[in-house]
């Protein structure tokens, strides 16, 4: 086998670096905003560009501009929040903007094509002194500006794009992947993109990265963080794992993708090569091999699409657990929304019909009190009671011997336990069988595409 | 609730104690046999009646007469076996008898209605010096004759009959229950039948009984015996657990039955109240609630029925494991033979039809070599490869999406791994569906009865 060549990386690098004219426009916008904040009256002390644009590690086309406005730690929380919002509203003026609430409220909007966030923050001495959740961020900006070389900024871009390509970039609920700050730490740790990928391909479970050696040993650090799969100590705050949002599966995917890339490096690792949708006949023949059934419900009112993806993730997992408790074996589930009108949760079920009777495994014979309750609770079983493996067991009629009924029940139960407006939306659910799923795919190309990807169920890098 | 009354026990006691005329006949037969052995020429030293008749703890109608013939430990194994058989053949004369081989050969037969066994044994100093497996038995006889009071012999009978009634008596493969010698030890330990049952009802897991306190502590003993559920140290040999053959489930059943008996003592605990067979319509309506499917095969040639029950137990467990590996969830299985022509193994299967595709869970991403093999072994999966919970998974077509096919395959595979004559018998298997199972029950009352008991699946004491 020929030794793999990485020559194409310079092409990738060029494609993902903002052009000189992009950079000029970005800098002009930053200067303009900082100037406006400075001349606006209020108790704020100063303002600072944070985020990847501040470190020059942002990807081309990524026009996020995060401006942090500093307030004295002596300022009461209430005035801090009020003044922060007032200032931001003034700066945005007539440009589109909205208040967003994460730990405290801030404003985001769009000015001349830039996605701008104006975030109030306390000016604290050390990251660990933080009074609000975002107070740590300016320390990150400072740390990276001090340590990342110009050359390394380019390497950060390559690694970010690689992680984007394998869908492991972003620490949000949907991705459970790698945040930008972590990518920067990896480049500081390993030096270059290629060395980082080589290291990644060799990662074992319980990998520890502690740039500033803030913990005495990796074992020591792991103990404090409950042996997580990847522990990356924040160089500005030793009590924080920068990789906290990275799921175990994303961690495993990164390792596998790194290995595959090193064995056969290709540009398509960086630019997720969207696999074409299946045709409707292909979908039909695929569905003949498995049992899909799901629910449709309207997109809940006044909900942000991003938030809804998180809700779908949570709700579909909850329903899956409920269905499993009813003895249905769910192989995979799939959720999708168009972000406006429709939401879908679809299950791939191993055993769509069960026996009409159900085994009830009661307490151990040693537990006399519970045995008595159990026997009294089931005075006329279909079969039993008997003792199996030391436990009292019996059979009773099964409430939901068909998956359809179980799914209906589970959707109703789930709706009841959710809050508005998801609750109202879920209450309007309709069951979807395979015919309806196919009909939906026929009507909506984007759904067809998502369904195809689910049915193929293939990692782009495998 | 009225305090339970145990007055009926005297009635039970009377029913299970051999009558004076029984006892006279038994003693006459023992004397006759011992006399004949004494006057027969050969290297044997003496003879002794062992077993429960020797201790006067045998149940009425139980006419087992075990005579042990002693040889010098200096006698070579070969002469020991040869002389033992020769002597026994002479004693049985024209009465029906056969050679049986357990660890060494001996002869059993029937003389005037008594089931007689004549077993050669080495006359050793201590039970632990034993040269052959049976050399321990005479020490048991000696120990019990020394320690059991006349009164306690009656208590042993009650406890034996109680264990018979709940089907926990006998240490054979089919019962995995309590041997007679253990019943005697329990009476020595607890004093009376009622006290023994009271103790039993309170037993916890890892109960230890060490009459002669041969081990320093129960914990110590348990460690040596791998923490078994019930450890009863043989008073004549501290390295032996008299309860070794008792399964965990039988142990649990004894505890539960004891508790039920004490709460509502009834005569039927002693005399297994045979529940009537279901009618055919009852069987049909029961089968509508579950999925039964099985195999029939001819009774293997020249096989003893007892041995066959053991084979059925083993083979049906093996098949169950094979079916489970094919993703079928077996709730229970049931086997039956008429001891002459037919044998049946029937499974109660939770999921008789599965999807046409099957999830293959491959190695962990961390195991690069096996991941590579796995991916190469499945070049064109139906879906995947993808990474789930850190493992490479994919879907492939399922070989046996219907239970019927899986059962057929499993029966063929099992036949191949068995030895003659079971192998030949299994090779002639036929699949049984519910219709055929009902037809069988219609034709064979004994099968109908066994099937009914299986379908009811109810402990007589619950």
Automatic annotation (TrEMBL), chains A, B:
Q: Which residues does Mg(2+) bind?
A: 64, 66, 117
Which GO terms label this protein's molecular function in UniProt? ATP binding; CCA tRNA nucleotidyltransferase activity; magnesium ion binding; tRNA binding
Q: Which Pfam families match?
A: CAA_C, NTP_transf_2, tRNA_NucTransf2
Q: Which residues form the CCA-adding enzyme C-terminal domain?
A: 293-417
Signal sequence coordinates = none
Protein keywords:
ATP-binding, Magnesium, Metal-binding, Nucleotide-binding, Nucleotidyltransferase, RNA repair, RNA-binding, Transferase, tRNA processing
GO BP field: RNA repair; tRNA 3'-terminal CCA addition
The tRNA nucleotidyltransferase substrate binding domain sits at 155-271
Residue ranges of every copy of the Polymerase nucleotidyl transferase domain listed in the record: 34-140
Where does the chain cross the membrane?
Answer: none
Q: Which InterPro entries match?
A: CAA_C, CCA-adding_arc, CCA_tRNA_nucleotrans_2, NT_2-5OAS_ClassI-CCAase, NT_sf, NuclTrfase_I-like_C, Polymerase_NTP_transf_dom, tRNA_NucTransf2
Q: Which cofactor does it need?
A: Mg(2+)
Q: What Enzyme Commission number(s) does the record list for this chain?
A: 2.7.7.72
Sites where the protein binds ATP: 52, 55, 140, 160, 169
Source organism, top-level taxon: Archaea
Catalytic activity of the protein: a tRNA precursor + 2 CTP + ATP = a tRNA with a 3' CCA end + 3 diphosphate; a tRNA with a 3' CCA end + 2 CTP + ATP = a tRNA with a 3' CCACCA end + 3 diphosphate
Name the protein family: Belongs to the tRNA nucleotidyltransferase/poly(A) polymerase family. Archaeal CCA-adding enzyme subfamily.
State any further remark.
A single active site specifically recognizes both ATP and CTP and is responsible for their addition.
- Name by which UniProt lists this protein: CCA-adding enzyme
Q: Which gene encodes it?
A: cca
